[in-house]
Amino acid sequence: MKRVAVLTSGGDSPGMNAAIRAVAHTCMFNDVECVGVMRGYEGLIEGDYKVLDRAAVGGIIHRGGTILKTARSERFTTPEGRLTALEKMKEHGIEGLVVIGGDGSFHGAKALHDLGFPVIGVPGTIDNDITGTDETIGFDTAVNTALEAIMRLRDTASSHDRLFIVEVMGRNAGFLALETAVASGAEYAVVPELPLSIGNLCKLLRESYAEHKSHTLIILAEGVMSAHEMRDKLQDTGGYDARVTVLGYIQRGGHPTSFDVVLATRMGAFATESLLIGKSGMMVGNINHKLVLSPLERAWSEQKSLSPELLSLVNKMN
Ligand code: ATP
Q1: Structure confidence at residue 211 (pLDDT)
Q2: Minimal-distance CA residue to ligand 1 atom 10
Q3: Same CATH fold, 140-252 and 3-138+256-301?
Q4: Which secondary-structure segment (H or E) carries 200?
Q5: Closest of 160, 155, 179 to residue 168, by C-alpha
Q6: Using one digit for the tens of pLDDT, what is the confidence trace for 272-296?
Q7: H or E element at residue 246
Q8: Could you give the 3-state DSSP secondary structure of residue 236?
Q9: Cα–Cα distance for residue pair 15/5, rounded to 1 Å
Q10: Ligand 1: which residues within 6 Å by Cβ?
Q11: Which residues of the chain have pLDDT under 70?
């Protein structure tokens, strides 16, 4: 291959820039030209590319977001859109593609692979909901960002003897909520993977207050319900007056942790090397600290499970 492209797609996540930089440098090391595609699959359809040389990827390793921008592309979900994207890449002499994103982006990557175009996926999402890798790029940073905010809330929660509900992101998965709950020493983690009974939660709170626990922190995954809804239910069922904080997009921003930068650099380099030796239709994963390739469809055909160990830890430590 003489020209390889890289794009970021779906929601942005901290560490994507480090992955882009790693793809570009691995290309340069192998005398391959690297082009960045702007705005994900939209830019692929429009032929919106820019050459990623040393200068273009200089000074980006610790920046949050993505210099290539990201977008959701309706057009790319149609066969016509994908054919236009293929024609544009052909026109520009692009012979392979690295897609950095979540499972939706991997669906798009698989569709290109099925049309005979070489593609490798790199998992970049704060949700960590992709099977085939222990961690996705951005997850560690998002947990740390949530933790920092919660530590501030803890101060006021303990000063005022308060019950706090903190809603974290994660879409339909509870990875972010569970990891954040363990890291922050929260009393409860409410995640979509486990059925929740408000009655049961009220009972646990009663028992906890009976033991003179002065303040309580509940970490709620957005995929269960909104924090405001939970506050109303706790009020109606148990008469609890909870304070609510929704962390929202704050968790997606900020500069990546060293863990995410290292993970992104390893994954970006490995994805590019795999592409250059002829692999395609695969995603990079970090399993037990080793980089591996697995079929892209694994990302959506197998559900990733929450760690039973972490789940039991939250219950033991409240
Ligand atoms: P995140 O987990 O952060 O939301 P994601 O990659 O799952 O990231 P999506 O919005 O689901 O984000 O997908 C990103 C883009 O991938 C879509 O806008 C679309 O262009 C493409 N895509 C998604 N699903 C398909 C599909 N079935 N076929 C082709 N392309 C798809």
Answers
A1: 80
A2: 10
A3: yes
A4: helix 198-210
A5: 179
A6: 999 999 999 999 999 999 999 999 9
A7: strand 242-246
A8: helix
A9: 18
A10: 9-11, 41, 72-73, 76-77, 101-105, 107-108, 111, 125, 127
A11: none
CATH architecture observed for domain 3-138+256-301:
3-Layer(aba) Sandwich (3.40)
Cα distances from 94 to residues 5, 129, 178, 231, in angstroms, run 7, 30, 41, 52
Q: Which structure tokens are listed for 306? A: 């929450």
Give the CA distances from residue 258 to residues 45, 50, 137, 139, 265, in Å, rounded to whole numbers and listed in that order: 34, 27, 11, 12, 10
Compute how many other C-beta atoms are within 10 angstroms of the C-beta atom of residue 26: 22
* Predicted TM-score (pTM) of this structure: 0.96
Q: For 107-166, what is each residue's pLDDT tens digit?
A: 999 999 999 999 999 999 999 999 999 999 999 999 999 999 999 988 877 777 789 999
CB within 8 Å of 251: residues ≥ 6 apart: 126, 142, 145, 146, 168, 169, 176
Count CB neighbours of 240 within 10 A: 18
CATH architecture of 140-252: 3-Layer(aba) Sandwich (3.40)
Distance of alpha carbon 314 from alpha carbon 318, whole angstroms: 6
User: What are the residue ranges spanned by the domains of the chain?
Assistant: 3-138+256-301, 140-252
pLDDT value at residue 170: 96
Give the mutation target among 77, 106, 129, 133 for probing the ligand 1 site: most ligand atoms within 8 A of CB: 77
- Asked whether 284 and 274 are in contact (CB, 8 A), the reply is yes
Give, rounded to a whole angstrom, the gap between the first and last alpha carbons of the chain: 55
Task: Determine what percent of the chain falls in helix, strand and coil, rounding each to the nearest 5.
Answer: 45, 20, 35
Element of type H or E holding 243: strand 242-246
pLDDT of residue 228: 97
